[in-house]
Amino acid sequence: MKKQNYKLPLDISRFFSEQGGHLETCSELESIDQHIGLLLTTHCGEHGFDKEFGTRLWEIDFENIVSRSAWEDTFVKFISEAIEHNEKRLTETTIQINVRDTLQEEASMQGYSVRKRVDIIILGTVISTGRQHGFKHTIYLGPLSRS
After folding, report:
1. What is the pLDDT of residues 100-125, one digit of tens each?
2. Which pick of 74, 87, 89, 111 has the fewest CB atoms within 10 Å?
3. Who contacts 89 (Cβ-Cβ below 8 Å, separation ≥6)?
4. Which run of H or of E encompasses 123?
5. Distance between CA atoms of 78 and 84, rounded to whole angstroms?
6. d(CA 146, CA 104)
7. CA triplet 59, 64, 68: central angle to 5 degrees?
8. What is the pTM of this model?
9. What digits encode the pLDDT tens for the residues 22-52?
10. Distance from first CA to last CA of the chain, Å, rounded?
11. Dihedral sign (CA 117, 118, 121, 127)
12. Distance between CA atoms of residues 51 and 104, nearest Å
């Protein structure tokens, strides 16, 4: 029997509808990509059923960066740990990040905030196919200053 990969976010109303009764599905690659996105945006301990699910990225969100390379190494390590522990459909993963500051207008505050934009590229071998595939995600880290 072929394994079903369900599309995130789950639309539970479709499952309980009179016509449907089915959750929306997606390809395995889409499912892995969505799962990685969920991992990156979930703090360890936040998930009620699995306290190990997520990443420790948020531990270094507001950290004063003394050494940018050490900070980036820790960032990559946290992502690597999360994928190794939580995404069993990938193996031989490598992670690359590109960190840059971005200026964002804050309409409600009538000012600007400087945030870190982190582009994350995850390359890995999909176990079911033996093929390499890449996944790209972008996250923004906490406001560093306001003007």
Report:
1. 888 776 666 667 777 788 999 999 99
2. 111
3. 28, 31, 32, 126, 127, 128
4. strand 111-126
5. 10
6. 10
7. 95
8. 0.78
9. 777 788 999 999 999 999 988 887 777 877 8
10. 58
11. negative
12. 33
